[in-house]
Amino acid sequence: MPGLRYTSGAQELWALVVATLANWEQRMNDAAAAAGLSPVSAWALVQLDPEHPISQKELAARLKCNPSTVVDPTDRLEQAGLVVREAKAADRRVNVLVVTPRGQRVRDQLIDRLFEPPAAFRRLPARDQARLRDVMRAAAGGAKTAQTIRRGRRARAG
To answer: What pTM was estimated for this model as a whole?
Structure first.
């Protein structure tokens, strides 16, 4: 960061992480546009697991937003034939979002585009990639990585 004197190693680390994400918004916009979706609808679709339907309320929790916020994006996903709302078997008062076969294909394309590593990451030696991945996993509290998502998707496809 030009002109910034870092007050700690953690601050410098965070600035470097932010710098690596500089193109994320454009990547999201491009991937969403290629799928014919808004960035919000595209990200909502990525968050849905085709094998485990969830309610809009659960999707909102995953997206860390108010449940009313996901109504429009899920309506658009349904209108596009990418999800359908179905009554939950265990509680018919609750509707869940079920990813359609077409929705799964679009989701897979979005994941491929969004989680393709930037060139700067691909240039790192495998050993450095593994170290950085392990450190970031610890920092993220063990959150699922794109590789975990990808492995799960390929396992279903295979």
So the answer is: 0.80
Tokens at residue 44, please?
């909502």
The arrangement of secondary structure in 24-157, i.e. its CATH architecture, is Orthogonal Bundle (1.10)
- Spell out the domain ranges in the chain: 24-157
**Which one, of 51, 56, 23, lies nearest residue 107 by Cα?**
51
User: Containing H/E element for 85?
Assistant: strand 83-88
Contacts with 46 (C-beta within 8 Å, 6 or more apart), sequence order = 107, 110, 111, 114
| Residues 122, 126: Cα–Cα separation, whole Å | 8
pLDDT digits (tens, 9 = 90+) for 136-154: 899 888 655 555 554 455 4
- CA torsion angle for 21, 134, 151, 122 (degrees, to 10)? 50
